[in-house]
Each structure stands twice: as C-alpha cells, then as structure tokens.
C-alpha cells in the first residue's frame, strides 16, 4: 500500500505508508537512546555513541522511507535507495504493475519503483454486503491515475532520461561515517 500526498508544483508523491511508520518508530527509539546516554554518561560519551545510532536511523531511512515515485504533468521521478531516475512522459513506452510499478522507457530499460504502488489483493466486501463484491485494489487505482497523467501529458513533456545518485543521502552518510571514524580515533 502506498501513501499519496499532493503538492501542486511538484506533482503527486507515492511512497509506502509502512516506511513512514517504521522511520518514526526508529527515530523515537534513537532519541530515547541518545537522551538516556546523555543523562547517564554525559555529553562527551553521547557524542561518541551518536554516530552509530544515527547510522542505524540512516539505514532504516534508506531502506524503508526514501523510495518513492513523484509524478506530475511533465514526467516522473523514481527514487530507489541511492539512485534517482527522472524522465519526461514522452520517454515512456509502457507503465505496468508487476509486483511493483514498472516504467518501460524508450531506451529499452525498465525502472522499477520500489516505493510506488504494489500489487495487492482486492479488499473484501463488508459483512452482509455480498452483492457489492470486492473493490479495486489500491495499486490498480494508482496505476490508472499514473497512466492518465502519462496519456494526458503535453507535447513538451520530453525531458531526457536522467539517472543520478541521491546526493543528499550520500552526504549525510559521509558525515555520519566521518563522525564515527572520529569517535573511534578518540576512544583508542
């Protein structure tokens, strides 16, 4: 299941709801651990422990939250772990929902959106309402929304296919690693 939020200039963002929940729980645990270390051991020891806790938060952030799909009138941006792929709608050959949302691009590559809608079972009809039948799964509804944007794209939605690294996430990792190495050197 994915959560969709709307932001007019950026389009619509799809990401798993479970990722947000897991991230919030891990952040709360990290804060509790760091506050406990601060109270029990002091600021110096907390600063020596902090990079390891922050590394765990960063890993959970990357694995559960960062993967997303952003679509707007001109194209899409797919973020998977440390990679970001963006493209205009004119560069898309097909959009399908296998286990995850898959964009087939004109250059012959497939871009699987790990944070986008996923295949799921249809919801059951409420008890006593057997005539209603099962509703359409959320992943199929989101796939239809994305296909509608693709088909309604303006003629100038021809942004090139661009693949890059998630530089803010890599910068945060570099800071945490440098901090951890400094903590190791100080404690030796």
UniProtKB/TrEMBL annotation:
Region described as Disordered: 114-135
Keyword field: Membrane, Transmembrane, Transmembrane helix
Composition bias type Low complexity, residue spans: 115-125
Transmembrane spans: 17-35, 42-61, 167-186
Record-given protein name: PH domain-containing protein
């Amino acid at each position: 299941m994915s959560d969709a939020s709307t932001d007019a200039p950026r389009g619509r963002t799809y990401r798993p709801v479970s990722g947000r929940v897991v991230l919030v729980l891990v952040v709360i645990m990290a804060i509790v651990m760091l506050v406990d270390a601060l109270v029990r051991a002091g600021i110096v020891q907390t600063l020596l422990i902090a990079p390891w806790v922050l590394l765990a938060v960063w890993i959970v952030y990357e694995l559960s939250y960062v993967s997303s799909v952003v679509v707007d009138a001109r194209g899409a941006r797919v973020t998977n772990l440390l990679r970001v792929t963006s493209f205009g709608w004119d560069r898309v050959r097909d959009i399908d929902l296998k286990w995850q949302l898959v964009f087939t691009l004109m250059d012959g590559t497939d871009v699987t959106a790990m944070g986008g809608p996923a295949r799921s079972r249809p919801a059951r009809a409420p008890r006593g309402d057997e005539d209603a039948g099962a509703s359409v799964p959320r992943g199929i509804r989101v796939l239809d929304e994305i296909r509608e944007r693709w088909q309604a794209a303006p003629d100038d939605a021809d942004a090139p296919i661009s693949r890059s690294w998630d530089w803010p996430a890599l910068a945060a990792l570099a800071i945490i690693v440098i901090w951890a190495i400094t903590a190791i050197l100080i404690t030796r």
